[in-house]
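[Automated response] Your request has been received and processed.

Submitted sequence:
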Amino acid sequence: MSHSAEDEIALFLRRLKWVVLGAAGLWVTWLLAPILTPFVAALMLGWLGDPLVDRLEASGRSRNTAVILVFVLMSLLIALALLILVPMIQRQITTLIAALPQGQEWLLGTAIPWLEQKSGVQIMAWLAPEKLFDWIRSHWQQAGGAATTLFGYVSRSGFAMVTWVVNLALLPILTYYFLRDWDKLVERVASLIPRNHIETVSRLARESNDVLGAFIRGQIVVMIALGVVYAAGLSLVGLNLGLLIGLVAGLISFIPYLGATTGVVLAVLAALVQSQGFDLKLLALIGAVFTIGQLLESYVLTPRIVGDKIGLHPVAVIFAVMAGGQLFGFLGMLLALPAAAVINVLLRYAHQRYRQSELYAGQQPEPVIVLDRRADVPAEAPAVLKDVESK
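Generated structure:
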């Protein structure tokens, strides 16, 4: 066996080892996903706050002082947001509860008769109490199974609520420690990288950090701006639940078009219930609000704040969020876009390496030297090949 073949086998085994380690890491992450959420959220907050800590430290303050100042600033911003938003959302929820009887009346008195007239299906007959009781009696076993499932879900939900409370309590503690020890964590990770790859890994890490910083910080600003625009616009046009719907649409606008689509559907339903029918003026104003919001996002906010540094197609963003949620739950959705941005950087690097590889360029044959019988001078192979092809 030649030496080159042995080298290729050794290289394959090394790559296989890293693939196995990566798969094992993903499996462990999947197992620990329920308890990793506060750690990942605190890690992201620490990463977001570290540049400001470094600036304060460069101005002459100690690391601990800079960390405390940034931590207090972040805490005050979160507390201020809660003080402003919680009473507003509480009023909107009260309005929603008060509108439920009106919505029920509109649904049973207007919407369902209109659907029956258009579709020819007797929907109201299935909503009659006797029909419901007959259906429950005929499906009592399934109903019992559903009740058992519901009880189990409620029990799990109670445990999940306790877990959420614990996670919220851990979040500020973990964030403080990540802020304080961020530089040490980076140094320790860098010390584990093989020395012959340190330059490449450092360059990819800096590029990933730039992409993530531009995208996440910018996307947070875009989400807040769209939430304010939607909430203020819907409230100004006279939609009672405009504030709540606008905030929801703004918060989920990190998924392309999902925020606007969800906001339009919820706003139209709220307008139909509020006006007890089709109020064309209100519906047109709602459409105008979301149109202005989308134009503002597409031509002002995203180009100026986020830019095209992340380089992800909207379809890729939607797939990343859905895949992350399917594989790792809420943790996966939290990590979907950062992971997609880093993977995009790695794919660009892999594409550059592929364009420079022998697989892409092919083996360049050495020029064949032949003797010209008439002139006894060498001629290049392409000329000979051309002459042969012409014959």
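Summary generated for your ticket: The CA atoms of residues 324 and 332 lie 4 Å apart. The longest strand covers residues 370-371.
If you did not submit this request, please reply to this message.
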